[in-house]
Amino acid sequence: MRWPGLGDPRKRRKTIRFLILLLIVGVAVGVTSSVFQGFLGQSDPLKVCINNRDTPYKITATLELHVDGNRADVPANIGFDNVEEDGLFDSVCQRTLYTITDDGIIYAEWEEEYPFEIGHFLWIWDFPLKDMDLSKSRIVVNGVESKLFINEPLVQGYHYKVEFTSKEHEESKDTDFLPPDL
Nearest Cα to 131, choosing from 107, 161, 166, 103? Predict the structure, then answer.
């Protein structure tokens, strides 16, 4: 099969030269973009490890999680990721938002004051937010429902009660259809 533009030797050279130039430009743009994004990400508190950083800004808050009306545990060690070095998992990367135990206490640390949000913690946790029906979910902060939902700022000492309803949840399972007790 003869490919268009490759029959004539002069056209073939021009086409190959154009493809090589296009490849070089594409690789250069990709490498430049990766280096630039890596450079900008070094100071983003949601993307870096804080193991070797001085973090004087520290806050704690408590999180109570309910999914489909049932209390769910907030696991320990959220925000501690294994980092691969030399093909092995040698070190642990501590993120800026983390838990130590499964009691629901969230810790946040950074080099300076930063507007952490409850959604940032859920993102670091990899909580399956996409599987939740957000129109039926809510966040209660110190007994008052939040209008900001997952954008609610984390404040020192506050208590956050998060109530999610999954998309697969059937409310009919919550009722038993028996007559009321008399």
Answer: 166
More confident residue, 88 or 164: 164
Model pTM score: 0.72
Beta bridge partners of 146: none
CA–CA gap between residue 128 and residue 142 (Å, rounded): 24
What is the pLDDT confidence band of residue 151, given thresholds at 50, 70 and 90? Answer: very high
Query: Please, where are the H alpha helices in the chain?
Result: 9-41, 118-125
Condensed to tens digits (0 to 9), the pLDDT of residues 32-51 reads 888 877 776 677 899 888 98
How deeply is 127 buried, as exposed, middle or buried, from its count of CB atoms within 10 A (0-12, 13-18, 19+)?
buried
Which class is domain 57-164?
A: alpha beta
Domain boundaries, the chain: 1-42, 57-164
Pick the residue with more confidence: 41 or 142? 142
Q: Which residue spans within 49-171 are E strands per DSSP?
A: 57-67, 70-72, 80-85, 88-94, 97-98, 105-110, 138-141, 144-145, 159-164
Dihedral of alpha carbons 41, 30, 92, 161, sign? positive
Contact status, residue 33 vs residue 39, Cβ threshold 8 Å: no
Q: Residue 126 is encoded by which pair of tokens?
A: 């990899």
